[in-house]
């Protein structure tokens, strides 16, 4: 295992300290318990958004803290849920009296710990609602969860719900928007290589030199099938079909197409993937109106990618276009 | 070799087509010869900036085409200079009558081909000036060049010269600013793993499981030494010292600190590096006033990173902060 780390047990603490040093204009950091909050939180009268989960998926979630997106992010250990304590502390720290929305990827540990934190916050008089993200069409009932997993679609939920909170929507309305984004978003991924969790020191799975895993989870959980590597266009077609068929997306739909790198994939490959995905949607009469390409929900150094498609309407498009100012996503302000 | 590609000979063409499909709001693409131009170029009366070089370093350079940065980028084959033809075509396409600045990383092929294109453009009546970027302190006279190599500092030259052109500076002034940025910028990198050029199919060098290459070039050219892997903080100290000593940076300086991922490095590791680099600069009395962290000048899927330090003055800081709107760098507009 070759990594740019000091102590495998201090990876998250040191990375968060570096994040604070780099982005002190956008965030403030609590080191015990660990969470990343928006600078000058809480904002009185604004619904606050809190997300979090195991580390190793950066820039998710800390990279999305700031104007127009999250008010706080709670990073757990690598690929391990944060405990209720830091989630509760973050929730209290950013509540501005208008309530807090928890955005939770559908993994059993995350769901339970956010639920406990929400219960404790409610007992303290904070109004908390929760939206569970489960956009991954690859498998039901995976290694770490019951039901579908939450993957790259989480970025779209956080961006759009963040914009709704910023324009002044109340907690019920922000939660409804977040739920709506999740309901029109579908994703699926593919891995070319595994990744190594620092404290484990070894890959959590292995792939032969000519094998890829279709439907990979963002912690390396098994997907649908393991196949011999194919040309990029064939791989795209193989994972786009179940995405489109699931909602289903149909001719005449306008969508946001998001090609997400899993951490170790060269950018040229992400654009080769984007090219075919856009073309394949066009062949089905689906119009790509908004786009996102890059490493946003990663699995450490894993090579591979995921494709996410979100069905747009005028309101979702307007909220997507609204200004955002975070370390990893920034425009229009 | 496992890659998300179709035909190794069509990697650049297909990636550029994907880039066009994803970022048609920012750029227009010429496919024969291949170059990426800013939407609605040329801008009458504005100095135009053109850069380029071998592909495989994305988002450099295409990701930096847009408002406040480049007017055109010319991607060559992977790790191979573009020929004069597309450079000349791009230069003609974006000239708005105020002249064109060529920003060229110091590799022999790039320097010669940009020089030929500049001569041909001049013969056509276009005023062209050239700035050579050579920020890498690792080695002199490397595999592909005489003198120092141009690496991640190129992003800073392109951003700041782009802002100067956008505010209306004339060609001589924009060239002077670009030269000034290069003169106060120093970089050095380290590789943990090699990368595989698609049409070669094999790594251009090998590293043992416990080895790293200090002073690596962005095409995998040899650096200063090959050592056993060390804790991240020791590696940072090892490459930051020659950077600081070279200019030299001194107590009281305000700097921009840029930690650049080489493509395959998890973001947590980049922030662990940033943490120590900022701390080590502070120990020397050097103040980090501006920051940049991410994959900006890459070597395909190579794991590793580079550190770049630029000495700031009020004007450079103002130009750095000025609005920019490109696929890979965007703020303030």
UniProtKB/TrEMBL annotation, chains A, B:
It comes from the Bacteria. One of its GO terms (biological process) is glycerol catabolic process. The keyword rRNA-binding does not apply. GO terms for cellular component: cytosol. Keywords: Glycerol metabolism, Kinase, Transferase. InterPro entries: DhaK_1 (IPR012736), DhaK_dom (IPR004006), Dihydroxyacetone_Kinase (IPR050861). It catalyses: dihydroxyacetone + phosphoenolpyruvate = dihydroxyacetone phosphate + pyruvate. Pathway: Polyol metabolism; glycerol degradation. One of its GO terms (molecular function) is phosphoenolpyruvate-glycerone phosphotransferase activity. Residues 7-331 form the DhaK domain. The keyword rRNA-binding does not apply. Its EC number is 2.7.1.121. NCBIfam families: dhaK1. Homodimer. The dihydroxyacetone kinase complex is composed of a homodimer of DhaM, a homodimer of DhaK and the subunit DhaL. This is phosphoenolpyruvate--glycerone phosphotransferase. It comes from Agreia pratensis. The lineage of its organism: Bacteria, Bacillati, Actinomycetota, Actinomycetes, Micrococcales.
